[in-house]
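Field reference: sequence -> structure
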Amino acid sequence: MATITKKKLIQAISQKKGMHPNDVRGVIQEFLDLMTDSLSEGDRLEFRDFGVFEIVERKQKVGRNPKNAHIAIIIPARPAVKFTAGKKMKRLIEEKHKKGGTKPEQAHVHAPRQHQSF
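Structure field:
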């Protein structure tokens, strides 16, 4: 599995659309900034077929210090971003994993590294 960075995404889009990378970079950065601002204000972002980003409240829980497991640590409740995949994304991911014969949770352990080009 490859890691797709913002830089790789910008390069791929600029090549595919014949645009200057700086133009693509500006659009992508503005998109990410608007997403961040909207989520920080508590807005829900819905992109049909892709998925939904929303803020949820994580409950308070008890954790353990790995160096001293006898001492309980209270992890306070906190807001967190939750992503729920859309129908099209779920379907494509399921199809890819069925073809490969691996379960999603095993894919990162057993699948050889593949480099994707966009």
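Note: The radius of gyration is 19 Å.
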